[in-house]
Specification:
This protein is α/β, with parallel strands linked by helices. It has helices at about 15-20, 25-35, 50-60, 85-95, 100-115, 155-170, 190-205, 220-230, 245-255, 280-295, 315-325, 345-350, 355-370, 380-395; strands at about 40-50, 65, 75-85, 120-125, 125-130, 135-140, 175-180, 215, 235, 255-260, 305, 335, 375. Strand 10, helix 10 and strand 11 (about 305) form a beta-alpha-beta unit. Helix 4 (about 85-95) packs antiparallel against helix 5. The chain is globular and about 65 Å long. The model has no long low-confidence stretch (mean pLDDT about 90).
Length: about 400
């Protein structure tokens, strides 16, 4: 007699609950057993010899595993492998250990909590974006002559407004207005020129669309004027690094802020970008810049993070970010992913920018499966459909 033995792939607690319920498991036991069905692999960097050895011993006692360098000299990284139950047991045991292991226990607890955290509601002006309900789509409105895809198409205010209204009617949840191109090699524009491009668009668009408008800028003065004109979200590609007045402005305004990772500046960012540990460096940067925002008074539920696809990254870097995007969930913030028509799609498919919509659709769908909460796109109507279909499969 065959017993139909198979492997269950359970990625979330919701998956576990469904499987257990269908199997007729007592509901009272599901909460107790579910953490035993969820495996987590946790990386810890910069452990000294004592910390690494104690961690390995304690994890073994709790039934898990720790991988460290076979010859620990100075400092090492550790990879912890176990169920959530085993990792929490280790955390409890570490609280009574010396050598700073109590602090490490707290950090492990934070990333475990963050990874499974339900995305929160983002309040942007009068709008509320419930990111736990579905993936949200941000439409790109570039009032620039040199953006890599639509540069020059929306320089006239009437054309920009018409396009913004069309994106809203096609299902855009947010419209992102920018007045300075950030494509590789782009030249910076003056404060006055950027204001001249974006403020009239925002002022008129706010009366025509019923969705939040974000301002794509790294200049605090542009962001301030944009907020006064009706924008309610700030999208800073520099990750709050360039203009030191930006964090305080965001805090004072109470606006949501998108913190993006970028290596270098647009003028030089694609000059042989290099990383020793790509995802680790991106996570470290986003964590540090989120702390900058929090210290300035920005509310935790106003922060959104973006790994910065194409900003100081090679094709291989971008593909790795997509594959490992879910690792950014350990920071506990909603994730924005912007892949639309970018060069890594063109390099992979050997296609010009005008023919990258299918490649974009693939990256949007995959990003959602890996935890993206917001996708930033040029082709709103098509990508709204991709997002809805993917949500139906991923979120049930």
């Amino acid at each position: 007699m065959l017993h139909n033995v198979g492997i269950l792939v359970l990625k979330t607690f919701k998956d576990i609950e469904k499987v257990f319920n269908k199997a007729g498991v007592d509901p009272a036991g599901i909460d107790i057993m579910a953490p035993n069905a969820m495996l987590r692999v946790v990386k810890i960097e910069g452990l000294d010899v004592c910390q690494a050895n104690i961690l390995k011993q304690e994890m073994s006692v709790c039934g898990g595993e720790v991988a460290i360098s076979k010859t620990v000299r100075g400092f090492t990284n550790a990879i912890l492998m176990g169920t959530i139950v085993q990792l929490n047991r280790v955390r409890e045991r570490l609280t009574s250990q010396p050598f700073g292991l109590k602090g490490i226990s707290k950090e492990i607890g934070e990333v475990l909590k963050n990874f499974d955290m339900k995305p929160h509601i983002i309040k942007a002006g009068k709008s509320e974006l419930d990111l736990s309900e579905r993936t949200h789509v941000m439409g790109i409105l570039n009032a620039t002559p040199d953006s890599f895809y639509d540069g020059g198409s929306y320089l006239e205010i009437s054309a920009a407004i018409s396009h913004g209204v069309s994106m809203f009617e096609d299902g855009a949840d947010i419209i992102d207005v920018g007045g300075e191109s950030s494509r590789p090699g782009a030249k910076p524009v003056s404060l006055e020129e950027e204001l001249k491009k974006v403020i009239p668009i925002i002022e008129e668009l706010t009366s025509k669309v019923d969705c939040p408008i974000s301002i794509d800028t790294y200049k605090a003065k542009v962001a301030k004027r944009a907020l006064e004109a009706g924008a309610t979200i700030i999208n800073d590609i520099s990750g709050l690094r360039v203009d030191k007045d930006m964090p305080k402005l965001v805090a004072t305004a109470g606006a949501p802020v998108i913190i993006m990772h970028m290596q270098g500046a647009p003028q030089i960012m694609q000059d042989n970008p290099h990383y020793d540990c790509l995802i680790g460096e991106i996570i470290s940067f986003l964590r540090e810049q989120a702390e900058v925002a929090l210290k300035a008074g920005v509310q935790e539920d106003k922060i959104i993070i973006d790994p910065g696809i194409g900003f100081g990254k090679t094709r291989e870097h971008n593909l790795e970010i997509a594959r490992r995007l879910s690792e950014l969930k350990s920071l506990g913030y909603p994730i924005l992913m912007g892949t639309s028509r970018k060069s890594f799609i063109g390099e992979t498919l050997d296609l010009p920018v005008e023919e990258r919509i299918e490649g974009t659709a693939a990256t949007v769908a995959y990003s959602i499966t890996q935890g993206a909460n917001i996708v930033r796109v040029h082709d709103v109507r098509e990508m709204v459909r991709v997002a809805r279909m993917t949500d139906a499969m991923v979120r049930g």
